[in-house]
Amino acid sequence: MTSKKQLKARVRARMAKTGESYTAARQHVAGPAAARDGQAADGGWRFTGGRHPSSAAIAAVLANQGVDVGEPLVFLAGGGIGAGYILWEFQHDGSRCVVLGFRNQWQYHDRWMAKTLGRLGVPYQEHRTSGVRGASDRLAAELAAGRPCVVLPDRYHAGYWHLPAAMDGHGGHPMVAYRLDEDQDAVLVDDRGRAPIRVPRERFDAARARVGSYRNVLHVLGDAEPDEATLAAAALDGLRDCAAHLSAASDSFSLPAWRKWARLLVDTRNAKAWPKVFADRRGLADALLSVWEGAEPVGVDGGNLRDLFADGLDEAAALLDRPALAGLAGRFREIHGLWHDLAEAALPADVPELGRVRELTAAVKESVMADGSAGGQEAAQVARELAVARAAANDVLEAAGDTGPLFGALSARVAAIHEAERESIARLAALVA
After folding, report:
1. DSSP run (H or E) holding 410
2. How far apart are CA 21 and CA 2, in angstroms?
3. I need a labelling partner for 45 at 20 to 30 A (CA). Which of 69, 178, 354, 379 fits?
4. pTM (2 decimals)?
5. Do 92 and 168 form a contact (C-beta atoms < 8 A)?
6. Per-residue pLDDT tens for 402-422?
7. Record's superkingdom (predicted)?
8. What b/e sequence results for 35-70 when a residue is b if at least 16 CB atoms lie within 10 Å of its CB, and e otherwise?
Protein backbone atom coordinates (compact mmCIF):
# COMPACT_ATOMS: atom_id res chain seq x y z
CA MET A 1 0.00 0.00 0.00
CA THR A 2 2.82 2.39 0.87
CA SER A 3 4.49 1.67 -2.46
CA LYS A 4 1.24 2.38 -4.33
CA LYS A 5 0.74 5.65 -2.47
CA GLN A 6 4.29 6.69 -3.22
CA LEU A 7 3.83 5.91 -6.92
CA LYS A 8 0.59 7.89 -7.03
CA ALA A 9 2.24 10.86 -5.35
CA ARG A 10 5.16 10.83 -7.78
CA VAL A 11 2.89 10.52 -10.79
CA ARG A 12 0.74 13.40 -9.58
CA ALA A 13 3.77 15.56 -8.94
CA ARG A 14 5.06 14.93 -12.45
CA MET A 15 1.67 15.64 -14.03
CA ALA A 16 1.46 18.95 -12.15
CA LYS A 17 5.01 19.90 -13.06
CA THR A 18 5.08 18.91 -16.73
CA GLY A 19 1.41 18.96 -17.75
CA GLU A 20 1.76 15.39 -19.04
CA SER A 21 -1.11 12.96 -19.32
CA TYR A 22 -1.57 10.33 -16.63
CA THR A 23 -0.27 7.59 -18.91
CA ALA A 24 2.89 9.46 -19.91
CA ALA A 25 3.65 10.54 -16.36
CA ARG A 26 3.09 7.05 -14.96
CA GLN A 27 5.30 5.42 -17.55
CA HIS A 28 8.07 7.95 -16.89
CA VAL A 29 7.88 7.41 -13.12
CA ALA A 30 7.37 3.64 -13.10
CA GLY A 31 9.58 2.83 -16.07
CA PRO A 32 9.19 -0.19 -18.38
CA ALA A 33 6.99 -1.98 -15.85
CA ALA A 34 4.25 0.55 -16.53
CA ALA A 35 4.09 -0.54 -20.16
CA ARG A 36 4.10 -4.25 -19.24
CA ASP A 37 1.14 -3.97 -16.85
CA GLY A 38 -0.68 -1.29 -18.81
CA GLN A 39 -3.39 -3.64 -20.11
CA ALA A 40 -5.76 -3.59 -17.15
CA ALA A 41 -9.10 -5.31 -17.56
CA ASP A 42 -12.59 -5.68 -16.10
CA GLY A 43 -13.88 -9.11 -17.00
CA GLY A 44 -13.76 -9.32 -20.77
CA TRP A 45 -13.17 -5.61 -21.28
CA ARG A 46 -9.57 -4.39 -21.76
CA PHE A 47 -8.64 -0.83 -20.83
CA THR A 48 -6.39 0.57 -23.53
CA GLY A 49 -5.97 4.12 -22.23
CA GLY A 50 -5.73 6.97 -24.67
CA ARG A 51 -5.24 10.70 -24.95
CA HIS A 52 -8.21 12.37 -26.64
CA PRO A 53 -11.71 11.21 -25.64
CA SER A 54 -13.16 10.93 -29.16
CA SER A 55 -10.32 9.01 -30.81
CA ALA A 56 -9.61 6.97 -27.67
CA ALA A 57 -13.23 5.79 -27.45
CA ILE A 58 -13.22 4.46 -31.01
CA ALA A 59 -9.76 2.92 -30.58
CA ALA A 60 -10.88 1.20 -27.36
CA VAL A 61 -13.92 -0.41 -29.00
CA LEU A 62 -11.84 -1.54 -31.99
CA ALA A 63 -9.13 -2.96 -29.73
CA ASN A 64 -11.72 -4.95 -27.81
CA GLN A 65 -12.97 -6.31 -31.14
CA GLY A 66 -9.41 -7.44 -31.87
CA VAL A 67 -8.84 -4.77 -34.54
CA ASP A 68 -5.28 -3.43 -34.60
CA VAL A 69 -5.91 0.26 -35.29
CA GLY A 70 -4.38 2.59 -32.70
CA GLU A 71 -5.57 5.96 -31.51
CA PRO A 72 -3.14 8.06 -33.64
CA LEU A 73 -4.52 6.61 -36.86
CA VAL A 74 -8.12 6.99 -35.67
CA PHE A 75 -7.37 10.62 -34.84
CA LEU A 76 -5.82 11.16 -38.26
CA ALA A 77 -8.76 9.54 -40.06
CA GLY A 78 -11.05 12.04 -38.35
CA GLY A 79 -9.19 14.98 -39.83
CA GLY A 80 -6.49 15.36 -37.20
CA ILE A 81 -6.07 18.66 -35.43
CA GLY A 82 -8.38 21.65 -35.34
CA ALA A 83 -8.41 25.15 -33.88
CA GLY A 84 -10.92 27.17 -31.92
CA TYR A 85 -11.10 29.83 -29.21
CA ILE A 86 -14.03 31.05 -27.10
CA LEU A 87 -13.96 33.15 -23.92
CA TRP A 88 -17.08 32.50 -21.86
CA GLU A 89 -18.29 34.86 -19.14
CA PHE A 90 -20.86 33.49 -16.69
CA GLN A 91 -23.04 35.87 -14.73
CA HIS A 92 -24.35 33.31 -12.22
CA ASP A 93 -21.00 32.88 -10.50
CA GLY A 94 -18.81 35.58 -12.06
CA SER A 95 -16.44 33.03 -13.61
CA ARG A 96 -14.58 33.34 -16.89
CA CYS A 97 -13.52 30.29 -18.86
CA VAL A 98 -11.50 29.80 -22.04
CA VAL A 99 -12.53 26.99 -24.38
CA LEU A 100 -9.84 25.87 -26.82
CA GLY A 101 -10.72 23.51 -29.67
CA PHE A 102 -7.86 21.29 -30.79
CA ARG A 103 -9.58 18.55 -32.81
CA ASN A 104 -10.98 18.77 -36.33
CA GLN A 105 -14.66 19.77 -36.02
CA TRP A 106 -14.29 19.84 -32.25
CA GLN A 107 -17.75 21.39 -31.89
CA TYR A 108 -19.57 18.62 -33.83
CA HIS A 109 -19.40 15.21 -32.17
CA ASP A 110 -21.79 13.42 -34.53
CA ARG A 111 -20.25 14.76 -37.74
CA TRP A 112 -16.76 13.82 -36.58
CA MET A 113 -17.86 10.31 -35.59
CA ALA A 114 -19.59 9.75 -38.93
CA LYS A 115 -16.67 10.70 -41.12
CA THR A 116 -14.08 8.97 -38.93
CA LEU A 117 -15.92 5.66 -38.83
CA GLY A 118 -16.81 5.95 -42.50
CA ARG A 119 -13.20 6.43 -43.56
CA LEU A 120 -12.04 3.55 -41.39
CA GLY A 121 -14.68 1.26 -42.88
CA VAL A 122 -16.34 0.67 -39.50
CA PRO A 123 -20.09 0.03 -39.74
CA TYR A 124 -22.10 1.77 -37.05
CA GLN A 125 -25.53 2.79 -35.89
CA GLU A 126 -26.33 6.18 -34.38
CA HIS A 127 -29.29 6.56 -32.05
CA ARG A 128 -30.82 9.74 -30.65
CA THR A 129 -33.71 8.65 -28.47
CA SER A 130 -35.51 11.75 -27.22
CA GLY A 131 -36.92 10.36 -23.97
CA VAL A 132 -34.77 9.45 -20.97
CA ARG A 133 -36.46 6.07 -20.43
CA GLY A 134 -36.20 5.10 -24.10
CA ALA A 135 -32.54 6.11 -24.24
CA SER A 136 -31.80 4.15 -21.08
CA ASP A 137 -33.57 1.06 -22.43
CA ARG A 138 -31.72 1.32 -25.75
CA LEU A 139 -28.35 1.50 -23.99
CA ALA A 140 -29.27 -1.43 -21.75
CA ALA A 141 -30.32 -3.54 -24.74
CA GLU A 142 -27.09 -2.85 -26.61
CA LEU A 143 -24.96 -3.67 -23.58
CA ALA A 144 -26.94 -6.81 -22.85
CA ALA A 145 -26.21 -7.93 -26.42
CA GLY A 146 -22.49 -7.42 -25.81
CA ARG A 147 -22.21 -4.24 -27.87
CA PRO A 148 -20.26 -1.46 -26.12
CA CYS A 149 -21.50 2.04 -26.94
CA VAL A 150 -19.83 5.41 -27.40
CA VAL A 151 -21.89 7.95 -25.44
CA LEU A 152 -21.57 11.63 -24.57
CA PRO A 153 -22.86 12.50 -21.08
CA ASP A 154 -22.63 15.85 -19.33
CA ARG A 155 -19.44 15.82 -17.27
CA TYR A 156 -20.96 17.37 -14.16
CA HIS A 157 -23.88 14.94 -14.03
CA ALA A 158 -21.67 11.93 -14.72
CA GLY A 159 -20.29 12.73 -11.29
CA TYR A 160 -16.90 11.09 -11.13
CA TRP A 161 -14.98 14.28 -11.97
CA HIS A 162 -16.55 15.88 -8.88
CA LEU A 163 -17.14 19.22 -10.52
CA PRO A 164 -18.87 22.16 -8.80
CA ALA A 165 -22.57 22.72 -9.45
CA ALA A 166 -21.72 25.76 -11.58
CA MET A 167 -20.52 23.30 -14.26
CA ASP A 168 -23.97 21.76 -14.66
CA GLY A 169 -24.78 21.66 -18.37
CA HIS A 170 -21.35 22.79 -19.58
CA GLY A 171 -21.01 19.62 -21.65
CA GLY A 172 -18.76 16.63 -21.63
CA HIS A 173 -16.73 14.26 -23.77
CA PRO A 174 -17.20 10.84 -25.39
CA MET A 175 -16.58 7.67 -23.43
CA VAL A 176 -17.39 3.99 -23.77
CA ALA A 177 -20.20 2.37 -21.81
CA TYR A 178 -19.26 -1.30 -21.92
CA ARG A 179 -21.43 -3.15 -19.39
CA LEU A 180 -24.36 -2.84 -17.00
CA ASP A 181 -23.92 -3.78 -13.36
CA GLU A 182 -27.38 -5.17 -12.68
CA ASP A 183 -26.71 -5.75 -8.97
CA GLN A 184 -25.85 -2.09 -8.36
CA ASP A 185 -28.05 -0.67 -11.14
CA ALA A 186 -25.05 1.12 -12.63
CA VAL A 187 -23.30 1.61 -15.96
CA LEU A 188 -19.63 0.68 -16.25
CA VAL A 189 -17.60 3.20 -18.21
CA ASP A 190 -14.16 3.33 -19.84
CA ASP A 191 -12.82 6.90 -19.90
CA ARG A 192 -9.18 6.25 -20.91
CA GLY A 193 -8.18 5.00 -17.46
CA ARG A 194 -6.98 1.72 -15.98
CA ALA A 195 -9.97 0.84 -13.81
CA PRO A 196 -13.76 0.66 -14.19
CA ILE A 197 -15.87 3.71 -13.50
CA ARG A 198 -19.26 2.79 -12.12
CA VAL A 199 -21.98 5.43 -12.58
CA PRO A 200 -25.45 4.91 -11.08
CA ARG A 201 -27.83 4.29 -13.93
CA GLU A 202 -30.24 7.09 -12.99
CA ARG A 203 -27.36 9.57 -12.83
CA PHE A 204 -25.96 8.33 -16.13
CA ASP A 205 -29.34 8.66 -17.83
CA ALA A 206 -29.64 12.25 -16.58
CA ALA A 207 -26.12 13.05 -17.75
CA ARG A 208 -26.83 11.77 -21.26
CA ALA A 209 -30.00 13.84 -21.49
CA ARG A 210 -28.63 17.09 -20.07
CA VAL A 211 -27.19 18.88 -23.14
CA GLY A 212 -29.73 19.46 -25.89
CA SER A 213 -27.38 19.53 -28.89
CA TYR A 214 -26.36 15.90 -28.37
CA ARG A 215 -29.06 14.60 -26.02
CA ASN A 216 -28.90 10.81 -25.61
CA VAL A 217 -26.61 10.33 -28.61
CA LEU A 218 -25.26 6.79 -28.83
CA HIS A 219 -22.98 5.12 -31.38
CA VAL A 220 -22.80 1.35 -31.70
CA LEU A 221 -19.81 0.14 -33.71
CA GLY A 222 -20.16 -3.00 -35.77
CA ASP A 223 -17.43 -5.52 -36.51
CA ALA A 224 -14.68 -4.09 -38.70
CA GLU A 225 -11.75 -5.57 -40.58
CA PRO A 226 -10.05 -2.62 -42.29
CA ASP A 227 -7.21 -3.69 -44.59
CA GLU A 228 -4.06 -1.71 -45.28
CA ALA A 229 -5.53 -0.06 -48.36
CA THR A 230 -8.54 1.16 -46.34
CA LEU A 231 -6.29 2.54 -43.61
CA ALA A 232 -4.05 4.26 -46.14
CA ALA A 233 -7.06 5.88 -47.80
CA ALA A 234 -8.42 6.91 -44.39
CA ALA A 235 -5.12 8.55 -43.50
CA LEU A 236 -4.91 10.42 -46.80
CA ASP A 237 -8.52 11.59 -46.64
CA GLY A 238 -8.04 12.71 -43.05
CA LEU A 239 -4.88 14.65 -43.87
CA ARG A 240 -6.54 16.38 -46.80
CA ASP A 241 -9.50 17.21 -44.59
CA CYS A 242 -7.13 18.66 -41.98
CA ALA A 243 -5.29 20.81 -44.52
CA ALA A 244 -8.53 22.14 -46.04
CA HIS A 245 -10.19 22.76 -42.69
CA LEU A 246 -7.26 24.68 -41.21
CA SER A 247 -6.72 26.67 -44.41
CA ALA A 248 -10.22 28.17 -44.08
CA ALA A 249 -10.78 31.80 -43.17
CA SER A 250 -12.94 31.23 -40.07
CA ASP A 251 -11.60 33.01 -37.00
CA SER A 252 -13.76 30.81 -34.76
CA PHE A 253 -13.11 27.27 -36.05
CA SER A 254 -9.88 27.41 -38.06
CA LEU A 255 -6.31 28.67 -37.61
CA PRO A 256 -7.27 32.38 -37.69
CA ALA A 257 -8.83 31.71 -34.26
CA TRP A 258 -5.30 31.79 -32.79
CA ARG A 259 -4.58 35.11 -34.50
CA LYS A 260 -7.84 36.54 -33.14
CA TRP A 261 -6.98 35.34 -29.63
CA ALA A 262 -3.51 36.88 -29.85
CA ARG A 263 -5.09 40.24 -30.73
CA LEU A 264 -7.78 40.05 -28.07
CA LEU A 265 -5.14 39.48 -25.40
CA VAL A 266 -3.81 43.03 -25.94
CA ASP A 267 -6.67 44.92 -27.62
CA THR A 268 -8.09 47.82 -25.60
CA ARG A 269 -11.30 48.42 -27.58
CA ASN A 270 -13.07 45.13 -28.28
CA ALA A 271 -15.65 44.18 -25.63
CA LYS A 272 -14.22 40.63 -25.53
CA ALA A 273 -10.60 41.79 -25.29
CA TRP A 274 -8.80 40.56 -22.19
CA PRO A 275 -7.80 44.03 -20.91
CA LYS A 276 -11.51 44.93 -20.87
CA VAL A 277 -12.94 41.60 -19.66
CA PHE A 278 -10.35 41.35 -16.90
CA ALA A 279 -10.11 45.03 -16.05
CA ASP A 280 -11.19 44.07 -12.51
CA ARG A 281 -9.03 40.91 -12.67
CA ARG A 282 -12.02 38.96 -11.32
CA GLY A 283 -11.99 35.30 -12.30
CA LEU A 284 -8.57 35.61 -13.92
CA ALA A 285 -7.18 32.51 -12.24
CA ASP A 286 -10.14 30.48 -13.53
CA ALA A 287 -9.44 31.65 -17.07
CA LEU A 288 -5.71 30.94 -16.85
CA LEU A 289 -6.40 27.50 -15.40
CA SER A 290 -8.71 26.74 -18.32
CA VAL A 291 -5.88 27.69 -20.70
CA TRP A 292 -3.48 25.37 -18.85
CA GLU A 293 -5.99 22.52 -18.71
CA GLY A 294 -7.00 23.03 -22.33
CA ALA A 295 -3.49 23.08 -23.76
CA GLU A 296 -1.84 20.43 -21.58
CA PRO A 297 -2.48 16.65 -21.66
CA VAL A 298 -3.18 16.77 -17.91
CA GLY A 299 -6.53 18.35 -18.83
CA VAL A 300 -9.65 16.25 -19.19
CA ASP A 301 -9.80 16.62 -22.99
CA GLY A 302 -6.22 15.55 -23.67
CA GLY A 303 -4.45 18.84 -24.37
CA ASN A 304 -3.41 20.46 -27.64
CA LEU A 305 -3.14 17.08 -29.44
CA ARG A 306 -0.25 18.17 -31.65
CA ASP A 307 1.80 15.25 -30.31
CA LEU A 308 -1.01 12.80 -31.10
CA PHE A 309 -1.19 14.26 -34.61
CA ALA A 310 2.57 13.81 -34.96
CA ASP A 311 2.26 10.13 -34.07
CA GLY A 312 -0.45 9.82 -36.72
CA LEU A 313 1.78 11.51 -39.29
CA ASP A 314 4.51 8.97 -38.57
CA GLU A 315 2.05 6.14 -39.24
CA ALA A 316 0.78 7.83 -42.39
CA ALA A 317 4.33 8.26 -43.68
CA ALA A 318 4.71 4.47 -43.72
CA LEU A 319 1.19 3.68 -44.92
CA LEU A 320 1.37 6.16 -47.80
CA ASP A 321 5.09 5.78 -48.52
CA ARG A 322 5.54 9.53 -48.10
CA PRO A 323 8.56 9.95 -45.81
CA ALA A 324 8.23 13.73 -45.83
CA LEU A 325 5.23 13.32 -43.52
CA ALA A 326 7.57 11.98 -40.85
CA GLY A 327 9.61 15.15 -41.12
CA LEU A 328 6.46 17.19 -40.64
CA ALA A 329 5.68 15.09 -37.57
CA GLY A 330 8.84 16.43 -35.98
CA ARG A 331 7.67 19.98 -36.58
CA PHE A 332 4.32 19.29 -34.91
CA ARG A 333 6.13 17.90 -31.88
CA GLU A 334 7.94 21.23 -31.70
CA ILE A 335 4.60 23.01 -31.92
CA HIS A 336 3.33 20.79 -29.10
CA GLY A 337 6.23 22.26 -27.12
CA LEU A 338 5.14 25.79 -28.01
CA TRP A 339 1.71 25.06 -26.55
CA HIS A 340 3.37 23.70 -23.41
CA ASP A 341 5.37 26.91 -23.06
CA LEU A 342 2.18 28.95 -23.43
CA ALA A 343 0.46 26.90 -20.73
CA GLU A 344 3.44 27.37 -18.41
CA ALA A 345 3.33 31.12 -18.95
CA ALA A 346 -0.41 31.21 -18.29
CA LEU A 347 -0.31 29.28 -15.00
CA PRO A 348 3.27 29.41 -13.66
CA ALA A 349 3.97 26.86 -10.94
CA ASP A 350 6.30 29.25 -9.08
CA VAL A 351 3.30 31.33 -7.98
CA PRO A 352 2.32 29.31 -4.88
CA GLU A 353 -1.45 29.67 -5.28
CA LEU A 354 -1.29 28.71 -8.96
CA GLY A 355 1.09 25.84 -8.26
CA ARG A 356 -1.36 24.49 -5.70
CA VAL A 357 -4.19 24.61 -8.24
CA ARG A 358 -2.03 22.67 -10.70
CA GLU A 359 -1.22 20.03 -8.08
CA LEU A 360 -4.84 19.44 -7.15
CA THR A 361 -6.04 19.44 -10.76
CA ALA A 362 -3.46 16.74 -11.55
CA ALA A 363 -4.48 14.79 -8.43
CA VAL A 364 -8.12 14.59 -9.51
CA LYS A 365 -7.11 13.38 -12.98
CA GLU A 366 -4.69 10.80 -11.58
CA SER A 367 -7.30 9.43 -9.19
CA VAL A 368 -9.88 8.96 -11.95
CA MET A 369 -7.40 7.45 -14.41
CA ALA A 370 -5.69 5.12 -11.93
CA ASP A 371 -8.50 4.00 -9.66
CA GLY A 372 -11.80 4.72 -11.38
CA SER A 373 -14.73 4.48 -8.97
CA ALA A 374 -12.51 2.90 -6.32
CA GLY A 375 -10.83 6.27 -5.87
CA GLY A 376 -14.09 8.21 -5.73
CA GLN A 377 -13.88 9.31 -2.10
CA GLU A 378 -10.31 10.50 -2.49
CA ALA A 379 -11.12 12.32 -5.74
CA ALA A 380 -14.09 14.03 -4.08
CA GLN A 381 -11.92 15.26 -1.22
CA VAL A 382 -9.26 16.55 -3.60
CA ALA A 383 -11.96 18.30 -5.65
CA ARG A 384 -13.19 20.09 -2.54
CA GLU A 385 -9.65 21.23 -1.83
CA LEU A 386 -9.33 22.35 -5.45
CA ALA A 387 -12.42 24.55 -5.15
CA VAL A 388 -10.87 26.30 -2.13
CA ALA A 389 -7.52 26.64 -3.92
CA ARG A 390 -9.14 28.14 -7.00
CA ALA A 391 -10.95 30.73 -4.91
CA ALA A 392 -7.66 31.63 -3.21
CA ALA A 393 -5.89 31.91 -6.56
CA ASN A 394 -8.63 34.17 -7.91
CA ASP A 395 -8.31 36.40 -4.84
CA VAL A 396 -4.55 36.68 -5.24
CA LEU A 397 -4.72 37.60 -8.92
CA GLU A 398 -7.60 40.00 -8.33
CA ALA A 399 -5.38 41.88 -5.88
CA ALA A 400 -2.33 41.74 -8.16
CA GLY A 401 -0.99 44.61 -10.23
CA ASP A 402 -0.97 45.41 -13.92
CA THR A 403 -1.93 42.48 -16.17
CA GLY A 404 -0.41 44.15 -19.25
CA PRO A 405 2.94 42.30 -19.17
CA LEU A 406 1.23 38.91 -18.70
CA PHE A 407 -1.29 39.46 -21.48
CA GLY A 408 1.42 40.81 -23.78
CA ALA A 409 3.61 37.76 -23.20
CA LEU A 410 0.71 35.39 -23.83
CA SER A 411 -0.25 37.29 -26.99
CA ALA A 412 3.27 36.94 -28.38
CA ARG A 413 3.27 33.19 -27.71
CA VAL A 414 -0.14 32.66 -29.31
CA ALA A 415 0.91 34.69 -32.35
CA ALA A 416 4.04 32.54 -32.71
CA ILE A 417 1.94 29.38 -32.50
CA HIS A 418 -0.41 30.72 -35.17
CA GLU A 419 2.45 31.39 -37.54
CA ALA A 420 4.09 28.01 -36.87
CA GLU A 421 0.85 26.15 -37.48
CA ARG A 422 0.00 28.21 -40.55
CA GLU A 423 3.34 27.35 -42.15
CA SER A 424 3.06 23.67 -41.17
CA ILE A 425 -0.46 23.31 -42.55
CA ALA A 426 0.70 24.88 -45.82
CA ARG A 427 3.45 22.22 -45.95
CA LEU A 428 0.89 19.50 -45.21
CA ALA A 429 -1.40 20.73 -47.98
CA ALA A 430 1.47 20.50 -50.47
CA LEU A 431 2.43 17.00 -49.30
CA VAL A 432 -1.06 15.52 -49.70
CA ALA A 433 -2.20 17.40 -52.80
Report:
1. helix 404-431
2. 23
3. 379
4. 0.96
5. no
6. 999 999 999 999 999 999 999
7. Bacteria
8. eeeeebebeebebbbbbbbbbbbbbbbbbbeebebb
